[in-house]
Amino acid sequence: MQAVEIKPDIYWVGGIDWTVRDFHGYITPNGTSYNNYLIMDEQITLVDAVKSDLSRTCLDRISSVVDPGKIKNIVVNHIEMDHGAVDKILAVAPNAMLYMTKLAKAGLARHFDISGWNIKIVKSGDELSLGNKTLLFLETPMLHWPDSMVTYVKEDKLLLSQDAFGQHYASSSRFDDGVPVEELEDAVVDYYANILMPFGRLITSKLAEIEKLGLEIDMIAPDHGVIWRKDPSKVLKMYHDMASGKAECSAVIIYDTMWKSTELMTRPLMEGLLAEGVPTKVVKLRNTPMSIAIKEFWKSRGMLIGTPTLNNLMFPSVAEFLTHLRGLRPTNRIACAFGSYGWGGGAVREAYGELNRMKLETFEPGIAIKYRPDQEDIKNIYDFGRQFARNLKEYHKQFEDIGSNV
Ligand code: FEO
What we know:
It contains 11 helices and 24 strands. With 406 residues, the protein is α/β, with parallel strands linked by helices. The chain is elongated. The longest helix has 22 residues, at 375-396. A hairpin with a 5-residue loop joins strand 7 (37-39) and strand 8 (45-47). It has helices at 55-63, 86-92, 102-108, 181-196, 200-213, 232-244, 261-275, 290-299, 316-327, 347-357, 375-396, and strands spanning 4-7, 10-12, 15-17, 22-23, 26-27, 32-34, 37-39, 45-47, 73-75, 97-100, 118-121, 127-129, 134-139, 149-153, 158-160, 219-221, 248-255, 280-284, 300-306, 309-310, 313-314, 334-341, 361-362, 367-370. The strands form 6 sheets. It has a 7-stranded mixed sheet with strand order 1-2-7-8-9-10-11. Strands 17, 18, 19, 22, 23 and 24 form a 6-stranded parallel sheet that branches. Strands 12-13-14-15-16 form a 5-stranded mixed sheet, with no helix packed on it. 33% of the residues lie in helices and 23% in strands. MU-OXO-diiron binds next to loops. MU-OXO-diiron binds at residues 78, 80, 82-83, 144-145, 163, 223-224.
């Protein structure tokens, strides 16, 4: 196992998991990597740890550069347990000093017996001189855990950004210039939608803070995926745009079905949307991992959620999706609901209840069809699709300038 030098005397020493497909419920079709970084200086310093079951890989990579027992400092930017091999590093470097935020210490104490650990609490603006290189710490609370911070290596203009700007993307290349651009962009959107969607405002203010501090960024090295060597400004711009509300002027129909009536409704809906020039995708929840449905929701300005009625409520997979989506606190999207019912109905009303709890822009009322759509229903559904598309295009206008002056 070899370390990979990413800057003079700074090495990637992480692990790649090509086969993981379920990352705490988040489906990862491209696997992931757990990145951490070794800084060779007068004080040898490790920034972040890997997932515990890759600790041997990490230690082997460190050993390709230096005896891990010589590590003097360990920076813990984030304590989620996919970076939890801190104890494994301490097992070989027991006298190392750990640097972390106050909340990281409190959180780690819930995972490990830290009574024998040497810990220094740091806060935004604190610096640590390693000899030739200087680390600057910047707290990023709730991006995406309360304990989070990033570490900036001043002399190298290198931002070690923990989860931020990462991707669940396994690759034999360690750098952005070694992978297809479209795949990388998709991985960034997927990661942002599923992990960072709730924190758009915080992201905007943290990016502004970095700009105000005048930090020049030559490279961004996250804890997952590839390192932004060729074009770190690309991911900064993507984050700025997504946090500001950028989305495609398109729609996604997300639905499930019992006896295919709700599914039948998706076809005239799509015809109506396309007739208005709104590109549309269709996602059937039972055939699609939740995280992919979330990504498709995030990419489009508008969502049509389709659900049959079951016991006066939404179909369970639709209820699950909307509950999960509500937790991600989506903004800047317009939505409507449709579905079939047999007698009492109720699912479309319930769906609007969820959409309104999310404070999304809604197009109401939705459209509910008894048992099975007939020819007149088909015409009405098509018209509903066209009306929603017109509303979507009007709503989208307020976001058209995002990104044009960044
Ligand atoms: Fe990669 Fe929030 O852990």
